Fold this sequence. Notes:
- The complex is a heterotrimer.
- Chain A has helices spanning about 1-10, 15-20, 25-50, 55-60, 65-80, 85-125, 135-140, 145-155, 165-170.
- Chain A is an all-alpha fold.
- Chain B is mainly alpha-helical.
- Chain B has 7 helices and 2 strands; from the N terminus they run E-E-H-H-H-H-H-H-H.
- Chain A: This is ATP synthase subunit d, mitochondrial.
- Chain A: Keywords: ATP synthesis, CF(0), Coiled coil, Hydrogen ion transport, Ion transport, Membrane, Mitochondrion, Mitochondrion inner membrane, Transport.
- Chain A: Belongs to the ATPase d subunit family.
Amino acid sequence: MAATRSAALKIDWANLGTKLGLRGNTAAALANFKKRNDDARRKVQVLSEQPQTVDFAHYRGLLKNQDVIADIEKQFNAFQPKKYDVQRQIKAIEAFEAQAVKSAEETKGKVDAELRDLEKTLKNIESARPFEDLTVEEVVAARPDIDKRVEQLVSKGRWQVPGYQEKFGNLSVL
Amino acid sequence: MSNFINVISPLDQFEVRNLLSLDAPILGNLSLSLTNIGLYLTIAGYLVFIIGLLSSNNNKIVPNAWSISQESIYATVHSIVTGQINEKNGQVYFPFMYVLFVFILVNNLIGMVPYSFAATSHFILTFSLSFTVVLGATILGFSKHGLKFFSLFVPAGCPLALLPLLVMIEFISYLARNVSLGLRLAANILSGHMLLNILSGFTYNIMTSGFLFFFLGLFPLAFIIAFSGLELGIAFIQAQVFVVLSCSYIKDGLDLH
Amino acid sequence: MPQLVPFFFVNQVVFAFAIFVMLIYVFSKYILPRFVRLFATRLFISKL
C-alpha cells in the first residue's frame, strides 16, 4: 500500500500532459482522473485525522440509560472497517494495462510504417522534376494501364475520356 | 505600244497552272504533273501534319499556347460531332470530321496569304468533298436501314394527298445538299478573294494617281485591311459550317430524322 | 476555267483525295490518340 501511494505521489501531474503532448479527450480524461485521485486522498487525510475512539465511560456517567450505551458500545466494537478486495481490481487494471500497451505498440508500428511511407513519398516528390516538366511518357511508364485504357477507348471509337470535361472544363470555342 | 495596260482578270488568281510535269509514255499515256493547286494542297497537308505533330509541348502534361490551341480545336470539333450526331456512338466519325475541319481551315488560311493560292475556292475540290460526304451518308443510311432509308423523304404526319409532292421536294432538297455544301464553301472563299482583288486594284490605281490621291487612297486601304480580318473570320466559320452540316447529314443517314 | 479541262479536273481531285485520305489515316492512328492519352494521363494525375 505504501509503495503504490508513493508511486502515486511521484507522478508529476503538471508535466505529464505537456510531456506526452496529450490533447483533447485524453487530456480531459487525465485531468478528471487527477481530480478524483486528489479528492480520494484528501478524504482519506481528513478521515484519518478524526478521533477514532469514543469515551464510553464518560457517556455512562452522563446518561441514565445504560442499555443504550452498552448497545452502542457493542456496535462500535463490532464495527470493522470494510476491507475492499483490491486484488481483483488491480488484476483488471493490469489486464487493461497489458491490452493498452499492446494496442499502443500496434499503433506505434502502424504509425512507423506510415511515416516510412510518407518519407518515401516526400523523397519521391523532392527528387521528381517540377510538375511543369512532367511528360505523358513518364506517367505512362509508371502506369502502363493508361495506355491500355487509351487503346480500349480508341478502338471503341471514343475520343473523349469519361469525366475529363467535368474536371478540366470544355475548351470548345462554340 | 509603250502605254499598253495589261488588264488582269480578278479571276486570274484562281487559274490552275502546270508547274512541273512529267509525260511518261508508260502505263498508257500517263502524265504526271504538279499544278499550283496540287502544290498548295500538298503544302496544306504538310502543315496540318507538322502542326499536329509538333504542337504538343514536348508531350508535357501542362499545355503551352500551341498545344492549347490544338486542344481547343479538338474540343470544338468533338463537341460539334457529339452534339450533331450522337453523344456516344457519333464519336466514331470524329477523326474524319477533325481532319475535314483542319484541312479546310488550313486551306482557307493559306489562301489568305498574299500571292498564294486558295485551294478551297475551287468548286471542283469542294464539290468532290461535299459529294463524297453526302454519298457516304447515303450509303451509311442504306447499309443501316435498307430500303427503309426512303422514309427519310416522308415528313412526319403529312396528309396523304400531299405525299407525292412532299416526297419530291424532300428528294430534291436531299440532292441539293450535295451542291449547297460545296457551293457555300467555295463561293464564300471565291467571292471574298475576288472582292479583295478588285478593291485592291482600285486602291492601287487611286493611290498611284497623285500625291493627294495617295492620302485619299488610305481610306479604301483601311477598308481592305478590315475586310481581310473579316475574311479570316470567314475562313474559320466556313470550315466550321462545313463540318456541322456534314455531321447533320451523317446523322440523317443514321437516324432518319 | 482550266479546272474544267478533264486533265486538271482529275489532277485536282486526285491530289485532294490522296492528301485527305493520308491525313485521315495519320490523324486517326497517331495524332488524335495522343490527345486521348494526354487526357487520360491528366485525369489520372488529378486523381492522385
